[in-house]
Amino acid sequence: MITELAVERVAFTCGACGHRWSVDYDVQRYLDGHGDEWEYFHRDNTVVPSPYVPENAPACARCGHRETGRLVARRPVPLPGVAGAPRIRVPAHALLRPERHLAPLLRSDGHPQPARVDPAVS
């Protein structure tokens, strides 16, 4: 059972070259039939490892060094079934907003990136 959905913005700073970037991840928390809770991470509709674990951290685009991310912002996505929440029934005979199938993918790095810091200037 899904217990939580959220979008998490994760910031990275390369410890080798100083490059900074951020990525939005879709995160699902899931409670299995044994009472264990799990997290699943997605980036651009693809399952990816947790960016918070050193061996899974993404590589720096400049030098390839791997650095774990840190959470900088979070937006919970409400789960269905909230009493009194507005909703709209999807008609069985027609698609609701068919253009959603043709809309471009909202990329995980499609937001303003951190300002570049020149390490020579202090």
Task: Tell me about this structure.
The chain has 122 residues and is an all-beta fold. Helix content is 0%, strand content 34%. The protein has a five-stranded antiparallel sheet, with no helix packed on it. The protein is globular, with a radius of gyration of 18 Å. It starts with a strand and ends in a 45-residue tail after the last strand. The mean pLDDT is 87.
**Roughly what percent helix?**
under 10%
| Total E-strand runs | 5
Number of helical segments with 4 or more residues: 0
Strand composition percent: 25-35%
Helix/strand/pairing category: mainly beta
Give a short summary of the structure:
Helices cover 0% and strands 34% of the residues. The chain is mainly beta and 122 residues long.
Layout of SSEs?
Layout: E1 2-13, E2 20-31, E3 37-43, E4 46-48, E5 70-77
Antiparallel strand pairs: 1-2, 1-5, 2-3, 3-4
Characteristic terms for this protein:
122 residues; mainly beta; 5-stranded antiparallel sheet; 34% strand
